[in-house]
Protein backbone atom coordinates (compact mmCIF):
# COMPACT_ATOMS: atom_id res chain seq x y z
CA UNK A 1 0.00 0.00 0.00
CA UNK A 2 2.85 2.34 0.89
CA UNK A 3 4.65 1.69 -2.42
CA UNK A 4 1.48 2.46 -4.38
CA UNK A 5 1.12 5.79 -2.55
CA UNK A 6 4.75 6.71 -3.25
CA UNK A 7 4.29 5.79 -6.92
CA UNK A 8 1.20 7.96 -7.18
CA UNK A 9 3.04 10.85 -5.48
CA UNK A 10 5.94 10.57 -7.95
CA UNK A 11 3.51 10.63 -10.86
CA UNK A 12 1.84 13.74 -9.42
CA UNK A 13 5.22 15.48 -8.95
CA UNK A 14 6.28 14.56 -12.50
CA UNK A 15 3.02 15.94 -13.85
CA UNK A 16 3.52 19.15 -11.86
CA UNK A 17 7.09 19.53 -13.11
CA UNK A 18 6.06 18.93 -16.70
CA UNK A 19 3.24 21.44 -16.27
CA UNK A 20 5.65 24.03 -14.90
CA UNK A 21 8.11 23.43 -17.74
CA UNK A 22 5.37 23.60 -20.33
CA UNK A 23 4.08 26.84 -18.81
CA UNK A 24 7.40 28.53 -19.44
CA UNK A 25 8.53 28.86 -15.83
CA UNK A 26 12.00 27.61 -16.81
CA UNK A 27 14.34 30.44 -17.82
CA UNK A 28 17.52 30.47 -19.83
CA UNK A 29 20.23 32.53 -18.16
CA UNK A 30 23.49 33.50 -19.92
CA UNK A 31 26.66 33.40 -17.83
CA UNK A 32 27.73 36.71 -19.44
CA UNK A 33 25.56 39.30 -21.13
CA UNK A 34 26.69 41.45 -22.83
CA UNK A 35 29.76 39.52 -23.86
CA UNK A 36 33.04 40.57 -25.43
CA UNK A 37 34.37 39.03 -28.63
CA UNK A 38 36.40 35.95 -27.66
CA UNK A 39 34.47 35.24 -24.44
CA UNK A 40 32.97 31.87 -23.56
CA UNK A 41 29.26 31.99 -22.75
CA UNK A 42 27.11 29.31 -21.12
CA UNK A 43 23.33 29.31 -21.44
CA UNK A 44 21.90 27.41 -18.45
CA UNK A 45 18.39 26.56 -17.33
CA UNK A 46 16.92 27.95 -14.14
CA UNK A 47 15.75 26.07 -12.19
CA UNK A 48 18.14 23.25 -12.99
CA UNK A 49 16.31 20.66 -15.08
CA UNK A 50 17.19 17.18 -16.34
CA UNK A 51 16.64 16.92 -20.07
CA UNK A 52 16.99 13.69 -22.05
CA UNK A 53 16.80 15.28 -25.49
CA UNK A 54 16.42 18.60 -27.19
CA UNK A 55 17.88 21.16 -29.54
CA UNK A 56 19.39 24.62 -29.50
CA UNK A 57 18.93 27.23 -32.23
CA UNK A 58 19.82 30.87 -32.70
CA UNK A 59 17.17 32.64 -34.70
CA UNK A 60 16.13 30.07 -37.27
CA UNK A 61 19.53 28.34 -37.49
CA UNK A 62 20.05 25.08 -35.61
CA UNK A 63 23.18 24.90 -33.49
CA UNK A 64 22.98 21.32 -32.21
CA UNK A 65 20.64 18.52 -31.15
CA UNK A 66 21.05 15.71 -28.63
CA UNK A 67 19.37 12.50 -27.55
CA UNK A 68 20.63 10.78 -24.40
CA UNK A 69 24.39 11.20 -24.35
CA UNK A 70 24.69 11.67 -28.12
CA UNK A 71 24.88 15.15 -29.61
CA UNK A 72 25.27 16.47 -33.14
CA UNK A 73 26.68 19.98 -33.79
CA UNK A 74 25.82 21.69 -37.07
CA UNK A 75 28.75 22.92 -39.23
CA UNK A 76 28.31 26.65 -38.51
CA UNK A 77 29.13 25.99 -34.83
CA UNK A 78 31.42 22.99 -35.19
CA UNK A 79 34.19 23.14 -32.58
CA UNK A 80 32.58 26.10 -30.81
CA UNK A 81 29.36 24.73 -29.32
CA UNK A 82 28.51 21.81 -27.02
CA UNK A 83 25.65 20.82 -24.74
CA UNK A 84 25.51 19.28 -21.29
CA UNK A 85 23.39 16.22 -22.13
CA UNK A 86 22.05 16.05 -18.56
CA UNK A 87 21.05 19.69 -17.97
CA UNK A 88 20.71 20.98 -21.53
CA UNK A 89 23.14 23.86 -20.84
CA UNK A 90 24.69 25.24 -24.05
CA UNK A 91 28.36 26.26 -24.05
CA UNK A 92 29.62 28.67 -26.73
CA UNK A 93 33.35 29.28 -27.09
CA UNK A 94 35.16 32.21 -28.74
CA UNK A 95 31.99 34.14 -29.46
CA UNK A 96 31.87 36.75 -32.21
CA UNK A 97 29.61 39.70 -32.94
CA UNK A 98 27.69 37.39 -35.29
CA UNK A 99 26.78 35.22 -32.30
CA UNK A 100 24.47 37.93 -30.99
CA UNK A 101 20.84 36.90 -31.12
CA UNK A 102 17.98 35.00 -29.50
CA UNK A 103 18.85 31.46 -28.41
CA UNK A 104 15.96 29.00 -28.22
CA UNK A 105 15.98 25.69 -26.39
CA UNK A 106 13.33 23.08 -27.25
CA UNK A 107 12.83 19.73 -25.60
CA UNK A 108 10.21 17.04 -25.99
CA UNK A 109 11.37 14.97 -23.01
CA UNK A 110 10.21 16.73 -20.89
CA UNK A 111 8.33 19.13 -23.12
CA UNK A 112 9.47 22.76 -22.80
CA UNK A 113 10.58 25.76 -24.78
CA UNK A 114 12.67 28.61 -23.39
CA UNK A 115 14.73 31.40 -24.88
CA UNK A 116 17.20 34.13 -24.01
CA UNK A 117 19.10 36.73 -25.99
CA UNK A 118 22.78 37.53 -25.78
CA UNK A 119 24.70 40.45 -27.25
CA UNK A 120 28.36 40.25 -28.25
CA UNK A 121 30.40 43.41 -28.79
CA UNK A 122 33.83 44.11 -30.17
CA UNK A 123 35.84 46.35 -27.81
CA UNK A 124 36.64 49.86 -28.97
CA UNK A 125 40.22 50.85 -29.75
CA UNK A 126 42.03 53.90 -31.16
CA UNK A 127 39.35 56.58 -31.24
CA UNK A 128 40.46 59.20 -33.77
CA UNK A 129 39.07 62.69 -34.44
CA UNK A 130 39.76 64.49 -37.71
CA UNK A 131 38.71 67.94 -38.95
CA UNK A 132 38.33 68.87 -42.61
CA UNK A 133 40.37 72.01 -41.79
CA UNK A 134 41.40 73.91 -38.69
CA UNK A 135 42.02 77.45 -40.07
CA UNK A 136 38.61 79.12 -40.37
CA UNK A 137 36.99 82.55 -40.66
CA UNK A 138 34.13 83.54 -38.39
CA UNK A 139 30.63 83.36 -39.92
CA UNK A 140 31.95 82.37 -43.35
CA UNK A 141 33.50 78.91 -42.78
CA UNK A 142 32.14 75.54 -41.67
CA UNK A 143 33.95 72.90 -39.62
CA UNK A 144 33.38 69.19 -40.28
CA UNK A 145 34.66 66.64 -37.74
CA UNK A 146 34.74 62.87 -38.22
CA UNK A 147 35.10 60.41 -35.33
CA UNK A 148 36.36 56.91 -36.16
CA UNK A 149 37.72 53.81 -34.41
CA UNK A 150 40.17 51.09 -35.40
CA UNK A 151 37.85 48.45 -33.93
CA UNK A 152 34.55 48.33 -32.13
CA UNK A 153 30.92 47.43 -32.79
CA UNK A 154 27.51 48.97 -32.06
CA UNK A 155 29.09 52.38 -31.53
CA UNK A 156 27.55 55.42 -29.90
CA UNK A 157 29.21 58.84 -29.94
CA UNK A 158 29.38 61.80 -27.56
CA UNK A 159 30.90 65.14 -28.57
CA UNK A 160 32.76 67.48 -26.21
CA UNK A 161 33.70 71.15 -26.54
CA UNK A 162 36.36 71.92 -23.92
CA UNK A 163 35.26 70.01 -20.80
CA UNK A 164 31.50 70.11 -21.46
CA UNK A 165 29.19 68.18 -23.74
CA UNK A 166 28.65 70.00 -27.02
CA UNK A 167 25.40 71.94 -26.92
CA UNK A 168 23.03 71.53 -29.83
CA UNK A 169 22.13 74.82 -31.53
CA UNK A 170 21.32 76.20 -34.95
CA UNK A 171 24.05 75.25 -37.37
CA UNK A 172 25.25 72.23 -35.37
CA UNK A 173 24.41 68.94 -37.10
CA UNK A 174 25.22 65.29 -36.31
CA UNK A 175 25.07 62.71 -39.10
CA UNK A 176 26.34 59.20 -39.94
CA UNK A 177 25.04 57.78 -36.68
CA UNK A 178 26.45 60.81 -34.82
CA UNK A 179 29.96 59.99 -36.06
CA UNK A 180 30.16 63.24 -38.08
CA UNK A 181 29.79 66.71 -36.56
CA UNK A 182 29.23 69.77 -38.73
CA UNK A 183 29.32 73.33 -37.37
CA UNK A 184 28.09 75.75 -40.01
CA UNK A 185 29.32 79.36 -39.92
CA UNK A 186 31.68 78.97 -36.98
CA UNK A 187 32.04 81.74 -34.41
CA UNK A 188 34.99 82.77 -32.25
CA UNK A 189 33.51 80.61 -29.48
CA UNK A 190 33.93 77.41 -31.55
CA UNK A 191 37.69 77.16 -31.01
CA UNK A 192 37.43 74.02 -28.87
CA UNK A 193 39.28 71.95 -27.93
CA UNK A 194 36.95 69.35 -29.44
CA UNK A 195 36.96 65.65 -28.57
CA UNK A 196 34.73 62.72 -29.42
CA UNK A 197 33.93 59.78 -27.17
CA UNK A 198 32.97 56.41 -28.67
CA UNK A 199 31.34 53.79 -26.50
CA UNK A 200 29.38 50.55 -26.49
CA UNK A 201 28.11 48.37 -23.62
CA UNK A 202 31.53 46.78 -23.00
CA UNK A 203 34.09 49.54 -23.64
CA UNK A 204 34.72 53.18 -24.44
CA UNK A 205 37.47 55.47 -25.71
CA UNK A 206 38.15 59.18 -26.17
CA UNK A 207 40.00 60.90 -28.99
CA UNK A 208 42.84 63.38 -28.73
CA UNK A 209 41.92 67.07 -28.75
CA UNK A 210 41.51 69.12 -31.91
CA UNK A 211 41.59 72.94 -31.76
CA UNK A 212 40.30 75.35 -34.37
CA UNK A 213 41.88 78.69 -35.23
CA UNK A 214 39.07 81.15 -35.89
CA UNK A 215 39.92 84.48 -37.53
CA UNK A 216 37.48 87.26 -36.57
CA UNK A 217 37.09 91.02 -36.27
CA UNK A 218 38.04 93.75 -35.95
CA UNK A 219 35.07 94.83 -33.84
CA UNK A 220 34.18 96.24 -30.41
CA UNK A 221 36.64 99.10 -30.86
CA UNK A 222 37.42 101.60 -28.06
CA UNK A 223 39.43 104.82 -27.64
CA UNK A 224 40.79 106.28 -24.40
CA UNK A 225 42.83 109.47 -23.94
CA UNK A 226 45.33 109.56 -21.08
CA UNK A 227 43.42 106.62 -19.60
CA UNK A 228 40.34 108.82 -19.05
CA UNK A 229 36.84 109.05 -20.45
CA UNK A 230 37.10 112.84 -20.92
CA UNK A 231 38.27 114.30 -24.23
CA UNK A 232 38.84 117.94 -23.17
CA UNK A 233 42.35 119.09 -22.22
CA UNK A 234 44.27 122.27 -21.64
CA UNK A 235 46.75 123.60 -24.13
CA UNK A 236 50.25 122.46 -23.23
CA UNK A 237 49.08 119.00 -22.18
CA UNK A 238 50.66 115.78 -23.35
CA UNK A 239 48.18 113.32 -24.89
CA UNK A 240 48.37 109.54 -25.20
CA UNK A 241 45.49 108.09 -27.23
CA UNK A 242 45.02 104.32 -26.93
CA UNK A 243 43.03 102.29 -29.50
CA UNK A 244 41.82 98.71 -28.95
CA UNK A 245 39.84 96.23 -31.08
CA UNK A 246 38.79 92.61 -30.74
CA UNK A 247 40.49 90.79 -33.58
CA UNK A 248 42.30 87.55 -34.39
CA UNK A 249 44.92 87.80 -35.59
CA UNK A 250 45.55 91.27 -34.09
CA UNK A 251 44.30 94.02 -36.38
CA UNK A 252 46.62 96.45 -38.16
CA UNK A 253 45.98 99.93 -36.72
CA UNK A 254 46.45 103.35 -38.36
CA UNK A 255 45.51 106.86 -37.28
CA UNK A 256 43.83 109.83 -38.92
CA UNK A 257 43.28 113.45 -37.86
CA UNK A 258 40.45 115.41 -39.42
CA UNK A 259 40.02 112.62 -42.00
CA UNK A 260 43.68 112.63 -43.09
CA UNK A 261 46.08 109.77 -42.34
CA UNK A 262 48.95 110.61 -40.03
CA UNK A 263 52.34 108.94 -39.93
CA UNK A 264 51.53 106.74 -36.94
CA UNK A 265 50.68 103.04 -36.77
CA UNK A 266 49.93 100.75 -33.85
CA UNK A 267 47.67 101.15 -30.84
CA UNK A 268 49.25 104.40 -29.47
CA UNK A 269 49.08 107.95 -30.74
CA UNK A 270 51.04 110.52 -28.74
CA UNK A 271 50.98 114.31 -28.90
CA UNK A 272 53.16 116.59 -26.71
CA UNK A 273 52.51 120.18 -25.59
CA UNK A 274 49.32 120.37 -27.63
CA UNK A 275 47.83 123.63 -28.85
CA UNK A 276 44.30 124.74 -29.69
CA UNK A 277 44.83 124.05 -33.40
CA UNK A 278 45.18 120.35 -32.58
CA UNK A 279 41.52 120.13 -31.55
CA UNK A 280 39.38 117.96 -33.79
CA UNK A 281 38.34 114.38 -34.64
CA UNK A 282 40.95 111.68 -34.09
CA UNK A 283 40.22 108.33 -35.77
CA UNK A 284 41.64 104.84 -35.29
CA UNK A 285 41.39 102.58 -38.35
CA UNK A 286 41.61 98.78 -37.92
CA UNK A 287 42.09 96.13 -40.63
CA UNK A 288 42.34 92.32 -40.43
CA UNK A 289 43.98 90.85 -43.53
CA UNK A 290 42.75 87.32 -42.65
CA UNK A 291 39.06 88.22 -42.55
CA UNK A 292 39.28 91.12 -45.03
CA UNK A 293 37.24 93.22 -42.61
CA UNK A 294 37.87 96.74 -41.36
CA UNK A 295 36.41 99.00 -38.70
CA UNK A 296 37.02 102.45 -37.24
CA UNK A 297 36.27 104.62 -34.23
CA UNK A 298 36.48 108.41 -33.85
CA UNK A 299 36.70 110.70 -30.81
CA UNK A 300 36.73 114.49 -30.87
CA UNK A 301 39.43 115.97 -28.67
CA UNK A 302 39.12 119.61 -27.58
CA UNK A 303 42.18 121.64 -26.61
CA UNK A 304 41.16 124.63 -24.46
CA UNK A 305 42.87 127.99 -25.12
CA UNK A 306 44.86 129.44 -22.18
CA UNK A 307 46.53 132.87 -21.68
CA UNK A 308 50.17 133.11 -22.74
CA UNK A 309 52.94 134.34 -20.39
CA UNK A 310 53.35 137.64 -22.27
CA UNK A 311 49.64 138.35 -21.94
CA UNK A 312 49.84 137.67 -18.22
CA UNK A 313 52.86 139.98 -17.91
CA UNK A 314 50.98 142.78 -19.70
CA UNK A 315 48.12 142.43 -17.29
CA UNK A 316 50.50 142.61 -14.36
CA UNK A 317 52.08 145.85 -15.74
CA UNK A 318 48.67 147.46 -16.09
CA UNK A 319 47.78 146.61 -12.51
CA UNK A 320 51.07 147.89 -11.06
CA UNK A 321 50.11 151.63 -10.69
CA UNK A 322 46.90 150.68 -8.97
CA UNK A 323 48.76 148.51 -6.51
CA UNK A 324 51.25 151.35 -5.77
CA UNK A 325 48.41 153.78 -5.12
CA UNK A 326 46.78 151.45 -2.66
CA UNK A 327 50.08 151.06 -0.89
CA UNK A 328 50.64 154.85 -0.60
CA UNK A 329 47.16 155.48 0.73
CA UNK A 330 47.78 152.96 3.46
CA UNK A 331 50.81 155.03 4.66
CA UNK A 332 49.06 158.44 4.98
CA UNK A 333 48.03 159.71 8.49
CA UNK A 334 44.49 158.89 9.40
CA UNK A 335 43.56 162.64 9.92
CA UNK A 336 44.24 163.35 6.33
- Please indicate the percent range of residues in DSSP E strands (runs of 2 or more): over 45%
Radius of gyration: 45 Å
What sort of overall outline do the alpha carbons produce when their principal axes are compared? rod-shaped
Q: Which range best describes the helical content: under 10%, 10-25%, 25-40%, 40-55%, 55-70% or over 70%?
A: 10-25%
What is the fold named in CATH at topology level of the largest domain? Immunoglobulin-like
Query: Which strand order does the major sheet show?
Result: 6-5-4-9-10
**What's the assembly state of these chains?**
single chain
Structural class per helix/strand content?
A: mainly beta
Average pLDDT score: 88
The CATH architecture of the largest domain would be Sandwich
Which spans have pLDDT < 50 for at least 5 consecutive residues? 1-23
Number of domains: 3
The total of beta strands comes to 28
CATH class of the largest domain: Mainly Beta
In angstroms, what separates the terminal alpha carbons? 169 Å
Amino acid sequence: MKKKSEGRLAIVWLALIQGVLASGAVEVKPSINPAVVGDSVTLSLSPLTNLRSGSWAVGESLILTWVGDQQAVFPAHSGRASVNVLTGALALNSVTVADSGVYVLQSSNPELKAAASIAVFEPISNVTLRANRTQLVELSSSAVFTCSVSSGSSLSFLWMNASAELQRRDGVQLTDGNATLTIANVTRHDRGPFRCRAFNPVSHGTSDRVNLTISYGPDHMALTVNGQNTTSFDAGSNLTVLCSALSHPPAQLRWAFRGQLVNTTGPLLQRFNVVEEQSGPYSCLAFNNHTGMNSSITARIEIAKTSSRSEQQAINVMLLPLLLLVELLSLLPEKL
